[in-house]
Amino acid sequence: MTGFRPLSSGLRALQPAAFGADPSGERMARIRRSPHYKDGVFQNPGGSTRTRPEGSATDFAKSYFDSDARQQRAPQGRIPVHATTLADLSKPPATGLRLTWMGHSSVLAEIDGRRVLFDPVWGERCSPFPFAGPKRLHPVPLPLAALGPVDVIVISHDHYDHLDMPTIKQLAGTDTVFAVPLGVGAHLEHWGVSADRLRELDWHESAEVAGLTLTATPARHFCGRGLRNTQHTLWASWVVSSGERRIYHSGDTGYFEGFKDIGAAFGPFDATMIQLGAYSEFWPEIHMTPEEAVQSHLDLQGGDATEGVLLPIHWGTFNLAQHPWAEPADRTMVLAHKAGIAMASPRPGEPFEPGAVPAVDPWWRGVAKAPAGGWVALPTVVEEAPVPVAEV
Questions:
Q1: Which of 35, 96, 103, 192 has the maximal Cβ count within 10 Å?
Q2: pTM
Q3: Region 250-274: what's the mean pLDDT?
């Protein structure tokens, strides 16, 4: 049986603080009791999942270092960022729900008077080192200190582009509650968050915070921050409900049939925040393509394309895969249009209300290198002619 072996005290002293801490004591005992933990590791829904790149290292290197492809993996111009202001956020949303995409997977959700911050990453790099690793492609829309009080911070898993030590350390000085998957609390305590502010959940468990119900739901991914990947912290998607409104954040995940189960149990949703960037043929089981993201939204909505709004996340801020920078949003826009799904297309920092979402604006086309065949035109929407009213 494979299992988790804690590092020796000497090795722990040598590792960077950003690596976090390993679960131990009662936390590790709880992990071992989880029905999703087997043979010393957390298990993905639907069976084993490849978490390492498939194919040969040579093929991957050719794809990654191809000069033409590299030009498309970053914007050619400055990404337009909406400088979020107090005026944007001080007025309550007219519909009771407002979302502000801060870039990548960081989203501020204001839901019936409560504020939820998903996967806050304000750092310059998603890396354990300040001098290396994927660098931010656009500035944060506003300083973290200017965000104002938050009722709960939700973390999907412990990868660097979702759990950022500098951001967490800054938030540790507040009285905000953190909702995290099982095992992730060890990192936060190591960085100064007190245990009484943690709501650490296994899949299908819920916590009540400030009148909201937060439920950790399954995802198909993996974990790890250090030199080893021992699968001893859980990854999750999240459902947040106020009673009146419901939202869903996918975290990172490959496509799986469990989206239908989540939708049946908790949907339909006013908005889904779906990961649809950093996909690759080299790791097809742990990140979704735009096609899979659109299908997951439909699954979560019980197959009804008219329900809710799809907000694309996990794209645009960091270069984490070989696909062109604008491809995730652009392909999703075309697919959503064909499927009759309402998609939001905010610039980073631009608040919007899912109950009154504006028409899609492909702003990314203005700063991206166009694909070889040009941008795909949206199909014309043919409006049905009004049915004449019979005269009496």
A1: 103
A2: 0.90
A3: 97
